[in-house]
Design the sequence.
């Protein structure tokens, strides 16, 4: 990424100002600031207008900003002032009339304080703006797709290490640390999120923390993991490994989830509605009798954040476009027994989609060798 | 912690409702929900009124809630509804008139949606409430102090491993991973935050990411680290280790920071103003000629979160009370050269304070043996 690339992203965003009724925009989301400037710190805002681009930050980040964003003007505060003071001063000095703020990222209280400061410093007004940068981020550019592919590659190398070294006495926590360490060895700056490692009943908790259960306790081992690559982009996968002889019930649940996932992926193309794709998977799981055991959405966008604004759920009003990247992750969770979730990362292409993740997912491929 | 302890925390909170002008409270901060209920998941809200305690969550957490909060009523949504629907239904059904919301934790946009839902379901109103649970959390109870001491103990054992194994060719990143791994071996569920490991010029970036500099590159090695213990409580320390022969300039900066830290700590007692304690350290660093190289606040509360509401800075209006826990962490950062920060964790006692952290901090004690 060059400064010209970041400038192009900002130029694209500026073109949306008119329809939002704004002539300037205060961007406070850490990921949105990073996306538009390349700055990797936090606690910093971006002020953007047709004539002015400024990053508002504090002394902790002064040196880092001069390295990461040498072409962007910065305003640095010390410990005796707040970012609200800085923001109001710039709004006042630049003579803008309608300054957008990120309605999902500014708390109710911060908005009130910002409004007081802006009212004191100018005659301009604050305008709530929802999801503007997020919508731009839904469609990934070439650089972002390279990074996401890299984050997937690192995650896939990591899981290969884990799979090849599974032992009956290993705990969920031991697996988690081995996986994190392996991904780092392959170039990750960290996991994309706290990896979920669940044996048997723990796998029935969609957001379980890895604990003390051992691999030998139950034939189902669920791993939901991803890597964050050097440029901050993430991957997100889930696989179930069969570490012992599965019951017919386990097989039926696995095949139900897998069939639902495949059918949903097959329906992803430009123009398809996210809610409709969700419905395909949800309907198949429902018909198989497991409807009440699948309570979360089918998938979500990801990139710099692990959960981005694209959502597949019954409530989604979104439509797929080329360049969008989304997880597809149906699951069936049987409390106290086990759970199955299968998750891949999908890129929407011009005429359909591409499955970016390549870890085998067929039932027969889920068997781990050590018990054979 | 027993359910009776959590109930006592909620009872204490309920007593503040009248002065806030509320008869019920929707608590949306993950840490505040955990503090009041023991629930360790996220995406869940707590509704609290004198007659009703309900956790609003979704199917992902159904089993976990039944284990962690068996005595608290839960309302579980599926993928076809939102937490706002749940919240509005409960506000409507319970007949409350003035429902508080957490003004710092609800985004502007979520507040607007919540207001629409509540307006449709009841004649009650939403009232912004600022920092109510946070103020209660500023003073730690016995259980919390035990956990913080434990998190400090784990962090101190971890740094002893790192210090004893320092080698000239080690990179900042290698040190980071060794430290995280050592703390886990001693019982941490993870670091309290991404550890900052900075050699020389990297130490001059207060929020640096560990990178590829090696220990041999510069005599100054700054480590800012902490552990999260099994109950979610954190610790936060910083030390500078001297891995080679320091210049007189390094010694002068180190002694300036250390003297400022000691003077500030000596001033902490019930009734002392946070801004005054900040001023003591800031003034000493200023007099020594390094004022413009210390741009952040002197310290912050911590516990379940690494940054809690108690702040020592020129802007703070807070006053110390017995049971508060706070970091004291002055620093001097010389861009392109090196930085020194020394940070300890302090408990405010009945008649003064106790330094909870015991890692040696004298200049002579900062020397690492391998070059001796």
Sequence:
């Amino acid at each position: 990424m060059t400064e010209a690339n970041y400038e192009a992203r900002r130029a694209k965003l500026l073109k949306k100002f008119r329809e939002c009724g704004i002539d300037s925009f205060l961007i406070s989301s850490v990921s949105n600031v990073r996306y538009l400037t390349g700055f990797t710190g936090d606690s910093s805002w971006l002020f953007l207008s047709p004539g002015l681009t400024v990053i508002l930050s504090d002394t902790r980040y002064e040196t880092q900003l001069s390295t990461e964003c040498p072409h962007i003007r910065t305003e640095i505060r010390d410990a005796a002032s707040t970012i609200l003071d800085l923001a109001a001063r710039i709004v006042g000095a630049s003579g803008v009339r309608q300054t957008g703020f990120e309605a999902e990222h500014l708390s109710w209280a911060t908005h009130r304080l910002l409004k007081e400061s802006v009212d004191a410093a100018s005659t301009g007004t604050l305008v709530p703006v929802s999801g503007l940068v997020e919508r731009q981020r839904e469609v990934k550019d070439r650089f972002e797709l390279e990074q996401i592919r890299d984050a997937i590659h690192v995650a896939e190398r990591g899981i290969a290490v884990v799979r090849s070294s599974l032992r009956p006495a290993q705990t969920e926590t031991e697996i988690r640390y081995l996986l994190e360490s392996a991904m780092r060895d392959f170039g990750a700056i960290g996991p994309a999120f706290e990896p979920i490692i669940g044996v048997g009943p723990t796998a029935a908790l969609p957001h379980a923390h890895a604990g003390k259960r051992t691999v030998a306790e139950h034939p189902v081992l669920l791993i939901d993991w991803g890597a964050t690559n050097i440029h901050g982009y993430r991957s997100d996968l889930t696989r179930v490994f069969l570490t012992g002889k599965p019951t017919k019930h386990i097989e039926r649940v696995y095949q139900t989830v897998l069939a639902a996932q495949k059918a949903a992926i097959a329906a992803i193309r430009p123009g398809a509605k996210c809610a409709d794709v969700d419905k395909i998977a949800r309907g198949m799981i429902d018909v198989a009798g497991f409807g009440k055991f699948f309570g979360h959405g089918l998938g979500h966008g990801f990139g710099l954040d692990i959960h981005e604004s694209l959502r597949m759920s019954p409530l989604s009003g979104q439509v797929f476009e080329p360049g969008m990247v989304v997880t597809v992750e149906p699951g069936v969770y049987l409390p106290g027994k086990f759970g199955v979730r299968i998750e891949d990362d999908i890129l929407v292409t011009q005429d359909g989609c591409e499955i970016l993740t390549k870890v085998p997912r067929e039932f027969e491929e889920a068997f781990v060798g050590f018990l054979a």
Observations:
- Chain A touches chain B through 53 residues (CB under 8 Å).
- Chain A has a mean pLDDT of 96.
- Residues 26 and 149 of chain A are 31 Å apart (CA to CA).
- The domain at 139-371 of chain A is CATH 3.90.230.10 (Creatine Amidinohydrolase).
